[in-house]
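Notes from the 1:1 (GR / supervisor)

We went over the backlog. Supervisor wanted to see one worked example end to end before approving the batch request, so GR pasted a single chain during the call. The sequence is below; no edits were made to it. Supervisor asked that the structure be written out right there so they could see what the output format looks like.
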Amino acid sequence: DKSINFSVLFIISIIGLFFISSNPKLIIITCLLFFGVVFAFMLIITKYGRQIIRRLLLRFNIKHFEGLWTNFSGIFRRNKKGLMLNLFFNFSKWALTAFTCWMVFVSVGAKLPFVMVFAITSIEKIVSYLPISFGGTGIRELTAVYLYSLHNIGASLTLAVYIILNAINYGVAF
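Structure output shown during the call:
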């Protein structure tokens, strides 16, 4: 579930970066990151790639990972419908999260396209997965301030929206 969640967010983020950024360095870094993930995925799904991973990374702990690929690939073969439902629900969850963010922006008077909010929300969620702070707090807001500032949304407005969103999230959690 976590890998599908991360994959959905990653794909939305990559697509979103192309729409919201005009910085060529950021686009090049994004392309390199995308191709790196594709290369890593290709290593995992090919027999030769798994042999390389066994030799280089799992030399001493190979017995802990025996049968992992068989179980992993079996899940994909046997449960395609369940995986597609999981993809759909993950995409829907992130779309609902972006819609909530967009509604808060609209309620405070900001005129933003939903697609841009969807892209920025997914990018900030990916960045918040970095283990720098607890739950990505601070990193998520800093990323949002930067990305929204590229589209002439002030830092104070962005932080106000994120304070409201955090209050909503904490309120719903209790």
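Supervisor's comment: The chain is about 80% helix and 0% strand.
Batch request approved.
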